[in-house]
Amino acid sequence: MKNLSSCHILLFSIIFAIAKRETPFMEKIIDENKQGTKLVLEEKKENTKKLFIESYGCAMNFSDSEIVASILNNQGYNTTQNLEEADLVLVNTCSIRDKAEQTIRKRLQKYNAVKRDINPSMKVGVLGCMAERLKEKFLEEEKIVDLVVGPDAYKDIPNLLNEVEEGRDAINVILSKEETYGDISPVRLNSNGINAFVSITRGCDNMCTFCVVPFTRGRERSRDWKSIIEECKDLFNNGYKEVTLLGQNVDSYYYTSSNPDEPVITFAKLLEKVAQISPDLLVRFSTSHPKDITDDVLHTMAKYENICKNIHLPVQSGSNKVLDLMNRKHTISDYYKIFDQLKEINPDIQFSSDFIIGYPGEEDEDFNDTFELIKKIKFINSYSFIFSPRPGTVAADLNLIDKKISMERLEKIQSQLYDNQMHMNKSLEHKTINVLVENLTEDKTGVFGRSEYMTSVIFNGKKDDIGKIVPVKINKSNRSTLFGERDFSSNQKVA
User: Where are the domains of the chain?
Assistant: First the structure.
């Protein structure tokens, strides 16, 4: 949908940006640079079939594609970037935004043109949220795909392919109350070997009035904490420097074993266990919900230096009236309380957020409340978008605010957010900060990475710095990027 709801981060290389009109969902941050990424993994010599898989949407979708690739890799498929030679073409879809759906429809037209003109034996399938939402429409009405697989049915893909081979359309969009894919070790597709995403929950129970996620991804469930820890340990042992714990709402993570002797694991306890793997492993999480984040989480963030001091906490609106209309189940006073607590625990912590502008029923007073919130809490990064309805949600039937008014409000909000970002980045000039180096710059004259606040940093590093956390003295900045030089005089540890 074009609107926000509850899951963060990322995205392979999370990029915080402020965009117009197009809205991510459930606090899922959508990295526009990654949309349509073709996933590739190391070939198995014994595999004879070719898989072409593209992903759209948030980090959760990219993580799911890794699960699908792992399943099919064990079924005789190697990945390919050449569409024309593929035996199986899959697109992992996002239903959160209309733009995403239209993009995917265009890709399906492309796939079918190749199937018609070049490779008649090719099979085409739709995965993920769009598959769940549109179901039979793809197969029976539009007849543009061979199989449709919902987010909880990826293990059934081999069976569905058998159905297709026997000449039948195949569909499984059944939502599960238990499936977490915790027993599948995802392949790391197109990975830089530095950052990785680890899914800890699936689904959502919040039922925000603007969001389709509960309908496309089902009820909330938590993955076995032991499998999460093992995956994070394995990543660290294989050279990864940073993990991001993913969920529609990570703060609601709650795992109970069938064994009554085993302890209940909350998100705070899970976060602590991941941080304890190694002080050299950076830990992030996304996304939080103001109604669910606990004091234990706040104190855990303060206790461990390797938990990054940046929290994405979507508020959506500064008006209690609008929050109630959205069924967000938190108030602005709740939000300020969390902000004050975190700042008291660690003054250096920074916030980012999401805002829906022009939600039905938003009056001038409500908008002014949102604007004042942004002025008081100088968010380091944020998304802001004009509301637009998604089919099947409560908000889809509400009366829209005049588009001109919404655009004027959006521009005012974004201008203030820009100022906040400029101010924050300016405040870091002449200071030394730690940077996780991810790659060479495009012209190969330096390197780029990210600070613990997710800010992009470019400096005069070398290839050997890639994958290391190094101190960088910031010399200048703009709204989106810090520029500096390696600080060899710093006593900060190089990890």
Answer: 32-172, 195-427, 432-486
Task: Report pLDDT digits (tens) over 381-416.
Answer: 888 989 988 878 899 889 999 999 999 999 999 999
How many whole angstroms separate alpha carbon 290 and alpha carbon 314?
A: 7
- Residue 340 class from Cβ within 10 Å (0-12 exposed, 13-18 middle, 19+ buried)? exposed
Q: What does the pLDDT look like over 214-270, one tens digit per residue?
A: 877 788 999 999 999 999 999 999 899 999 999 889 999 999 988 888 899 999 999
Those residues whose C-beta lies under 8 Å from the C-beta of residue 255, and which sit 6 or more positions away, are 222, 223, 224, 225, 264, 265, 270
Write out residues in the chain with pLDDT < 50, as ranges.
Answer: 1-38
User: For 32-172, CATH number?
Assistant: 3.40.50.12160
Q: How far is it, in rounded angstroms, from Cα 225 to Cα 454?
A: 26
CB 417 within 8 A of CB 409: no
Closest CA to 233 of 472, 295, 225, 71: 225
Q: Which CATH number fits domain 195-427: 3.80.30.20, 3.20.20.80, 3.90.1170.20, 3.90.79.10?
A: 3.80.30.20
CATH number of 432-486: 2.40.50.140
pTM over 0.85: no
Quote the pLDDT of residue 27. 34
Cβ contact 368:412 at 8 Å? no
Residue whose token pair is 């940073």: 242
